[in-house]
Design brief:
Elements (H helix, E strand, L loop, with lengths): L1 E6 L5 H12 L2 E3 L9 H6 L1 H25 L4 E4 L2 H14 L5 H15 L7 E6 L2 H11 L9 H16 L5 E6 L9 H18 L1
Helix pairs in contact: 3-4, 3-5, 4-5, 4-7
């Protein structure tokens, strides 16, 4: 079985991936942040490095999905390949931070990959306000994220909501994270477990 967690920067995807992996004994597939050779440069000069970064993420997540597909175990994935193609790359293009030539090239690569993958059995979307995202980003203190602009996060949030409203790749669970603290409050985490159990039981 393949589960995935989607959500904007700072919504809690990695934390929830880790906690669910430990709870259910699932294999966790994380977003390649620490070893990403473009991330620091991207946040310093988005226009110069946007295409390189997006292609790197696309390749990384495609490899993950292929590995998950070939595995006989249950995996939980931190962010999906669809978010790169439907949210991050189009947003950079609209903001003038990725050229039309690069964006069209990127979309061609994604469309080819999309023929070989299918959506997760369950997608968990972490819905969050921009103020909560900013609070979480500041709390974790990653140096390269200090320069993230509010308008960038706002635009991403708008694109996430538009994407989720039309999501048709499989089962969907939406969790509003503004008023809960699943990372530290076990009752809040337990509520998420109950919702996931109900969804998973409905798959079989």
């Amino acid at each position: 079985m393949h589960l995935a967690i989607s959500g904007n920067i700072g919504s809690g995807k990695t934390t929830l991936t880790k906690k669910l992996s430990e709870h259910y004994k699932w294999i966790a597939n994380y977003e390649d942040v620490e070893n990403n050779p473009y991330l620091n440069d991207f946040y310093k000069d988005m226009q110069r490095w946007s295409f390189n970064l997006q292609v790197y993420f696309l390749n990384s997540r495609f490899r993950q999905v292929i590995d998950i597909k070939n595995s006989k175990k249950t995996h939980i994935q931190d962010r999906t390949i669809y978010e790169d193609a439907h949210i991050f790359a189009p947003n950079l293009h609209t903001m003038g931070l990725m050229s039309t030539r690069d964006f069209n090239n990127y979309q061609e690569i994604f469309n080819l990959m999309d023929e070989f993958v299918k959506g997760p059995d369950l997608l968990i979307y972490l819905r969050s306000s921009v103020s909560t995202l900013v609070e979480q980003i500041q709390k974790r203190g990653r140096e390269y994220e200090n320069s993230i602009r509010l308008d960038y996060l706002t635009r991403l949030n708008e694109r996430y909501e538009a994407w989720i409203s039309e999501y048709n790749k499989g089962n969907l669970l939406i969790i509003d994270v503004d008023d809960i603290n699943f990372s530290e409050n076990e009752e809040d985490f337990g509520d998420i477990i109950e919702k996931i159990d109900a969804k998973i039981n409905g798959l079989f």
